[in-house]
Fold:
Amino acid sequence: MGILEDNITKLDGYLDRFRERGIQNRIDGKDCVGAGGVFTNRSPVDKSKICDVAHGTAEDIDTAARAAADAFAGWRDMPAAARRKILLTIADGIEARAEEIALCECWDTGQTMRFMSKAALRGAENFRYFADQAIKARDGQHLRSPTLMNVTTRVPIGPVGVITPWNTPFMLSTWKIAPALAAGCTVVHKPAEASPLTARLLVEIAEEAGLPPGVLNTVNGFGEGAGKALCEHPAIRAIAFVGESRTGSLITKQGADTLKRNHLELGGKNPVIVFEDADLERALDAVIFMIYSINGERCTSSSRLLIQDTIREEFEAKLVERVNNIKVGHPLDPSTEIGPLVTEEHYNKVTSYFDIAREDGATIAAGGEKVGEEGYFIRPTLFTNATNDMRIAQEEIFGPVLTSIPFATEEEALSMANDTPYGLTGYLWTNDLTRALRFTDKLEAGMIWVNSENVRHLPTPFGGVKASGIGRDGGDWSFEFYMEQKHIGFATGQHKITKLGAL
Ligand code: NAD
Structure:
């Protein structure tokens, strides 16, 4: 039996329980049906039904938020070393079930095994990293003034809501939930409706690792129902959100009445700028990797190539050759590089840009085609002869689709790089050090890599500017969000207190 057949057989075994019992909400350590009944979850690989999923509503969110509020004091007051131990056990549990997580993720989202096997392990790494940070999360400073010993400390903000999207859902959920738990917060998680499988596996693993009931609750459902109710719930102190920019605005509006703290990780239209003096072979590899890996459904993807006009022809020719070689296929085949797009709605959105590109006068130099009827497959696509004001250069397509735009000078490249509503990442390829310093200083992005693709390092800040988000994750920045600073001043003597009403 080949690896693909072997993977399909294993997946079948893992899916049996979902087919039989569906996915229930998990609240206070118990399975709960959704107040809205069920909705159907389908695979983008062949459009087949995977399972029924509990359709959570405001009622279920209320039950979960109350459970998270009840569990908060116990979890907050548990010694950090004990919390650390549970989080490390969760990491072990994720590793032990990495294959199950990866196979389910691929079937649910269309992502390929080639990338998702690592996503499960990165999820474990997120738990390990933040488990270790838990020990010092509450530490503060001593700030002496003439009359007071001023002490700061951090305390967990309370129960928080975590709302995640469908692209690499397992890794992104752990990226939010691990620091929240390490900080001492309890969580209500609303996973994306298009990819509920691995969120269910995560809550199971967490409970098996000894996480007390109510500390992590999972409510499935849709954005306008369960998601909105979570933002509006008075017991929920903060919302950690990953998703589209326009949803980010809704999250802010919905949380206004309860004065929610929001952390928003949103969309991007990230530029990769290649100058003629760069190592062009490495630049080519990175350009291709950063838009065609993970089906291009990646917030940090370099979806706009700004290429110096002197090297454009040769670079684009090599690009076309490589893009045409990319293997589209079954996501469980280890040789597959691109799988199907996640849903019919998203497939329709991404493929609509083929016509938009033509209407705007760009050239489809590679791809621009659907593949078969069975699932939501498309050929990796390259648009050339584009200008930065075209829709294909301004809008987040969120698929394996790259727009190439030429530039003549550094000033022009910088101006085009900054000329979008977004500002998540930027990638710069040049061997001129002073240019790199100048350029990165002016580039409007939360994260920039020079002569590199996106290589994530957990202690560094992750987040965007402009329409790409508000707030940062990573290292201590995560705790700044999930915790409150508290200041306490102790008088060190008998300093003068102004007397009022005294004769
Ligand atoms: P989305 O905004 O449609 O949905 C994300 C989540 O929000 C889902 O769980 C959805 O149910 C929920 N939601 C929708 N409407 C809501 C509402 N009114 N109130 C509360 N919750 C609501 O995003 P998506 O299509 O699932 O994901 C793709 C997007 O995510 C892309 O724009 C991508 O760039 C972005 N993303 C950003 C990052 C980052 O770190 N910046 C990472 C991954 C993905």
